[in-house]
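quick one: magnesium ion bound model?
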Amino acid sequence: MDKKYCIGILGGGQLAKMSTIAASRLGFDIAIMDKEMRSPAGQLTHNEYVGWVDDELHIRSFIHHCNVITLENEFVDHHNLKFIESLGKKVYPSSTTIALIQDKLLQKQALKKNKIPVPKFIEVKEEHTFAAIAKILGPTFVLKSRKMGYDGYGNALISNEKEYNDAVKHLSNRHINLLAESFVNFTMELAVMVVRTAKETKVYPVVQTIQKNHICHTVIAPAPISKKNASFAENIAIKSVKAVKGFGVFGVEMFLTKDHSIIVNEMAPRPHNSGHYTIEACVTSQFENHIRAVMELPLGSTEMVKPYAVMINLLGKPHPQKNIDIYHASLKDPNIHLHLYGKNGTRVGRKMGHITIVGDNLKKILKAATAIEEKISL
Ligand SMILES: Nc1ncnc2c1ncn2[C@@H]1O[C@H](COP(=O)(O)OP(=O)(O)O)[C@@H](O)[C@H]1O
Ligand SMILES: [Mg+2]
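yep, here:
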């Protein structure tokens, strides 16, 4: 065989780590760029670049090493991605897609333009007051940072003037950086992973996601919804990815309402927390299919190999246990798959790892996973 292909990933967190493991199994080399040394993915490769894409010399030497570039989060400035493309290197997803997604206002506008249902939204301007927005969106709405929001950090639920004024101050020092959208009184949150290349589009089963404090806590696959709703959600997810000209893996988050409408909340241009279960529960994981898509290879089957899967995030808790106690507590159940990300520090609420369990009886595996998660403090 000739020299290995090298895939460059911008960002070295858990999504890059799990993509690296999938890439490595396929015999690819990985190069990681992250601001921090020894990031979860950086620990797995000799091609570790510490720095960021805004450093031109640094990015030049990084991309020289790589055949193709991808990213593990949408916070890479699209201008930097455009620069990489101008040097003749392919980036998946492209700078055009990232420009549309990394700004939640532009993202919503792109979805709306393509007739994809989204909550009613407006751009928040300097002259806006609580009353003016409430008049348009209703008495309760969600204020969101247009950029850099994740795990609920950029969001605030607003139902009075004081909450509005506090949130504007807290979320941004400039009104132009915010959008506001109607509060959706959903009955369930759903997510769909889509993988797309120039030749193929495949979709993973629709899952239910349960958020606690705006952070994904539990994922149930497949979602307990009718076949009709599931196929509707799948179609909306595919349309959403096409709306932003997306190639690679995408996670599309949605709300299901009482009257069975499905409304898109947001999309992520990368492997997604709601797709971690695919490692053990599907023929091809979201990470492997992302790598395949980035390498323009045929995609693997997205079908589940077991009827049900449950994934629970292990979030940082106030009093972390010793590592060895965590292994003993979680591995006591022989059916649990434990993933610890190897992050350099713990913080309450930080995603430190996850557990997945697959099986024939949903109630049983949900109970088993919940019991293990309650015993672990990372
Ligand atoms: N318009 C809305 N109506 C009701 N709940 C919402 C709305 N927007 C967000 N949320 C809740 O907040 C969570 C996080 O919001 P999201 O916009 O997905 O931000 P993040 O980028 O932090 O994931 C959602 O999963 C949902 O539970
Ligand atoms: Mg979200």
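The pocket of adenosine-5'-diphosphate (ligand 1) is lined by residues 119, 142, 144, 149-152, 154-155, 181, 183-184, 189, 211, 214, 253, 265-266 (CB under 6 Å).
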